Amino acid sequence: MDGIDFLWRHATHPMAEEMQLLNANDSDEPISCYCCGRPSSEWIVPLYQQRLDNYIQLNVPICAPCNALFHGSYQYMGIEKGTPEKPTAAGKLGMLVGCGLLVTQQQKILFTNPGWDKRLKTASNPIFEQHQVSGKGALDYALNLILELGNEAFPLLYISDLGRKKAELVANLRLTISKASINICSADSTWRLNTGLMQSIRTMQQHDKAGWKKLEGYIFRSCHGQIAPNDDGLHAFLNTHAEALTIARSLPADPHNKLQLLRSL
Ligand SMILES: [Zn+2]
């Protein structure tokens, strides 16, 4: 299932009652969502809302699941601007810069920072549980939470930062099927964390700290083009460190993903 449809089915669908939804089946013209780009035949529900696009100054159709990112709701999402006494704009899921989201088969959790936490808590009928944890600790916290889940929690969706670029976020949503590898989604990228590899690195970090520091240094410098892939020092090191060799062979090929992995440890 598409990530944005998963989010609708498991979390955001109650917002439908507040939206001005139209039925795509009532239209003589074919309709595609301006956010996800899918034709209406692929949507989980045939419903959409017309929204004004500020760049082209035209009304454009947004499918109901994508619209849940744009939709402002005091009841479900609290306030975005103003104070609880004098709110000036309602909270929107697609504007929570710096907040993460985990939706499993049983749970819906927003990982919030202090600023958003206060504003989201003014919601009278919140859709999401809130855990206040942000910055680098938030990814660690979410990963540990996911690793403790039972099989019945999967598939799940994990977003490390909701950001505010909705179309980019929707394009990057990938469900996580099992805890063997976790898809970490944001508007900037989606990358797959191999949790077996993460455990191997954590084990090496504990019992061979110097070896790991050396390997980490090589990975870091190679990602920044500072050592050649055929570097003699690297190969001499790997030939005498079986554990490091196994880890080096399991690393993601993309340098950007390698660095993301290092940052997540
Ligand atoms: Zn859409």
Short descriptors:
39% helix; alpha+beta; 11 helices; binds zinc ion; single chain; three-stranded antiparallel β-sheet; 265 residues
What is the structure about, briefly put?
The chain is an alpha+beta fold.
Walk me through this protein's architecture.
- This protein is an alpha+beta fold and 265 residues long.
- The chain has 3 domains: 3-69, no CATH class; 94-195, no CATH class; 199-264, no CATH class.
- It is built from 11 helices and 11 strands.
- The protein has a 6-stranded mixed sheet with strand order 8-7-6-9-10-11, sandwiched between helices. It has a 3-stranded antiparallel sheet with strand order 1-2-3.
- The longest helix is centred in the last third of the chain and has 15 residues, at 209-223.
- Bound molecules: zinc ion.
- Zinc ion binds next to α2.
The mean pLDDT is 94
Radius of gyration: 22 Å
Number of strands: 11
Give the end-to-end Cα distance, rounded to a whole number of Å. Answer: 30 Å
> Helix fraction?
25-40%
Number of helices: 11
**N to C succession of SSEs:** HEEEHHEEEEHEHEHEEHHHHH
Low-confidence stretches: none
Domains, number: 3
Broad structural category: alpha+beta
**Strand arrangement across the biggest beta sheet:** 8-7-6-9-10-11
Instruction: Give a short account of the largest sheet.
Output: 6 strands, mixed
Shape summary: elongated
